[in-house]
Amino acid sequence: MKILIVEDEKFLAESIQEYLKKQYQTEIAQDFESAKEKVLNYDYDCILLDITLPDGNGLNILKILKEENKTEGIIIISAKNSLDDKILGLELGADDYLPKPFHLSELSARISSVIRRRNFDGNNVLKINDLDIDAVAKTVKFKHQFLDLTRTEFDLLAFLISNKNKVVSKSAIAEHISGDQAEFFDNFDFIYAHIKNLKKKITNSGARDFLKSVYGMGYKYEVF
C-alpha cells in the first residue's frame, strides 16, 4: 500500500517515512508543485497533507483531487490548529485532521483507519471468498492457515481486492507496488512473477484461485 507524505519539514518527512516504511511504500513531496505533480500522475492509498507549504496552500491539493474525482484517503497534518482550517479541509474531502506535534504511533493508527474505511469497508478483517484478510496485521488466512506472503504480495492482493471484479492494468499495478519508479521499467515481467507467486501460495493453502488474468489488459480478483 502506498502513502504520499506532503511535508516541507525535511526532518519530519523523513522521520515519518522511516517509521512507516516497514508497513507501506512511501514517497515524499516537499512543496506544492511536486505534490501536485504526484497526485495528478499517481494513485495513493493515503496522503498525509501539510497545509502550509513554501509555494502554496496544501488545501488546494484537496481541491485538485476533488476536481479530478480521485479517491485517496487524506489526513491533514499541520501546525495550523485553527477551527476554520480543520472545517474547510474536511469539507474539501479530508478524512482526518492531526495537529502537530503528534506521536508517530497515532499517525500510523489513523492511516490504518483511513485505509480500512476506503478499501476494506471499515472492517479490520475482510472475508473475501475463501480468504480472511486482516488489514491491521496485514495477514491473509485460509481457514486456520496463514499464507506466507511478502509485503509486496499482500499489497498486491489488497489492491486487486479493493478493485474487485474490475480489470486492473499492468501499468496500474506497477505504479501501485513501485510508485514513481514504475516509469523506469522496460517491461512488466516483475508483475507476472509476483502474480505467479501469489496464485501459487493461495492454491497451495487449499483456497480457490479467484485471481484471473485478462489477456492483453491486466488482472482482476473475482468476488462472488
Automatic annotation (TrEMBL):
The lineage of its organism: Bacteria, Pseudomonadati, Bacteroidota, Flavobacteriia, Flavobacteriales. Keywords: DNA-binding, Phosphoprotein, Transcription, Transcription regulation, Two-component regulatory system. The keyword Ribonucleoprotein does not apply. Residues 2-115 form the Response regulatory domain. The modification 4-aspartylphosphate is found at residue 50. It holds the Pfam family Response_reg. Residues 123-223 form the OmpR/PhoB-type domain. This is Response regulator transcription factor. The keyword Hydrolase does not apply. InterPro entries: CheY-like_superfamily (IPR011006), OmpR/PhoB-type_DNA-bd (IPR001867), Sig_transdc_resp-reg_receiver (IPR001789), WalR-like (IPR039420), WH-like_DNA-bd_sf (IPR036388). Residues 123-223 bind DNA.
